[in-house]
Request: fold
Amino acid sequence: MDWGMKNRMAQIIKSDGKCFFLPIDHGYFLGPTSRLERPGETIKPLLSYADALFVTRGVLRNSIDPMKSKPVILRVSGGTSVIGSNLANEELTTSVEEAIRLNAMAVGMSIFVGTEYEKQTLTNLGRLVDECEKYAIPVMAVTAVGKELEKRDARYLALCSRIAAELGARVVKTYWCEDFDKVTQSCPVPIVIAGGPKCKTELEVFNFVHDGITKGAIGVNLGRNVWQHKYPVAMMKALHAVIHKKATPKEAEQIFRDMKSRAK
Reply:
């Protein structure tokens, strides 16, 4: 790994080897997602606990203060919407030159293994890695499942994650699942946990994040369970403690309660 790649990776993964990515890229297929209608305002109080933002170029340019931003992971795939026929039918939508112009520390794109667009999204990843390696820009592959959430088991996610690593992704974002160590142990590059749909309780979030990190993930890329929460800053602080301070789920829950009481 050359100096530029090491330096960019060090911007998004902290010196303890852990990371907390804050994704606000949901609008690229969901439109004005609830509580993300004004993304710049939503994330303003959360930035101090985030290590990097996962964001599209449009929101980055129009909603994020360049003087107060965290390192950027630029979303570079898309082309479908939640009301379209198939979320898996993605293409590359943003060039590597654009990523350089926006000073992105990394880029991210989705792959849809097991769908009719599997080959398309995997070859997209291969082409993106080829271009990004020229400029020492890390690629984060997102093992997306579209609307088919039942696919999220260890066997499937291990398959997706390993393929992404084999094609050159420097980081893989995938979902937490039972037996998550089977996913991390078979993937030779760092794994971050996706947040997925909003959970019913705070402890549910703290539990799966803690379990995932204990079993080999380096951190999370988690959005809706934070910024759609009634107390998003309390959630950020509690999750930051799990990721960077080795807090247990119960300790994180107490941190959340303390912050929540001060916010009332």
